[in-house]
Amino acid sequence: AQSVAQPEDQVNVAEGNPLTVKCTYSVSGNPYLFWYVQYPNRGLQFLLKYITGDNLVKGSYGFEAEFNKSQTSFHLKKPSALVSDSALYFCAVRGFLNAGNNRKLIWGLGTSLAVNP
Amino acid sequence: NAGVTQTPKFQVLKTGQSMTLQCAQDMNHEYMSWYRQDPGMGLRLIHYSVGAGITDQGEVPNGYNVSRSTTEDFPLRLLSAAPSQTSVYFCASSPPAGGPDTQYFGPGTRLTVL
Questions:
Q1: Chain B residues with CB inside 8 Å of A90's CB?
Q2: From the list B40, B42, B102, which residue is nearest A46 (CB)?
Q3: Alpha-carbon span B3 to A48, nearest angstrom
Q4: Which of residues 21-40 of A touch B (CB under 8 A)?
Q5: pLDDT > 90 in chain A, percent
Q6: B41 compared with A56, residue with greater pLDDT
Q7: Most B CBs within 10 Å, among A35, A89, A97, to test the B interface
Q8: Per-residue pLDDT tens over the stretch B29-70
Q9: How distant is the Cα of A73 from the closest Cα of chain B, in angstroms?
């Protein structure tokens, strides 16, 4: 089965502290993994992706994510959170649409990050 | 580049009315898609296209039609609006024809069906 799980609906962190937003996935083959961010009343913006190579991926706005194949996880991290990081974060993995070869992104339900001043 | 644009930003329809949500991109992307976003359900794929003249159904296509006459435009038509179609609709595009890879999203259309 293809799926993405974001186990936390909400994450609260104090400004300046490190943050982690968790994501686990289930997909056959080598995963293509993505993180997107959605600010209020805006469309989603791409943050970073993992396709192959180094397990630590660096992305926009100081975010990074660590791919762990054995734990099928792709957690989003930032060493020092900013109030402006407060937003909704989505993890996604590329999978297959129905039984054919056509692909789609399988999305998690999102995690709301609140960074408190 | 304007990226991905969507119109209108807001729309209120009565049950049974039809309308078209417009989507355009100026990045020469081959892959385009329509999603709806509902609370607690994440993003669900409605229809997608891998190039001009080619469209296919996503996960929740019922009640919606699409066409792709040009690379730039990918309109979504609601045939007979129902309250269950109240949602936020996002159009997205992606460079590879085999897509999706990194997707670029429009700002969304917030639709209410009364």
A1: 42-43
A2: B102
A3: 18
A4: 32, 34, 36
A5: 76
A6: A56
A7: A97
A8: 989 999 999 988 889 999 999 889 999 999 899 999 999 999
A9: 19
Is B104 in a helix, a strand, or coil?
strand
Tokens of A101: 């070869």
Q: How do residues A99-110 score in pLDDT, each as one tens digit?
A: 566 778 899 999
Q: What percent of chain B has pLDDT over 70?
A: 96
Contacts of B102 (CB under 8 A, 6+ apart): A34, A46, A49, B94, B95
Smallest Cα distance from B17 to chain A, Å: 25
C-alpha to C-alpha distance for B55 and B75, rounded to whole angstroms: 11
DSSP per-residue codes, B30-80: SEEEEEEEETTTEEEEEEEEEETTEEEE-SS-TTEEE--SSSSB--EEESS
User: B42, A32: Cβ pair inside 8 Å?
Assistant: no
Q: Which of A19, A23, A34, A35 is nearest to A78 (CA)?
A: A19
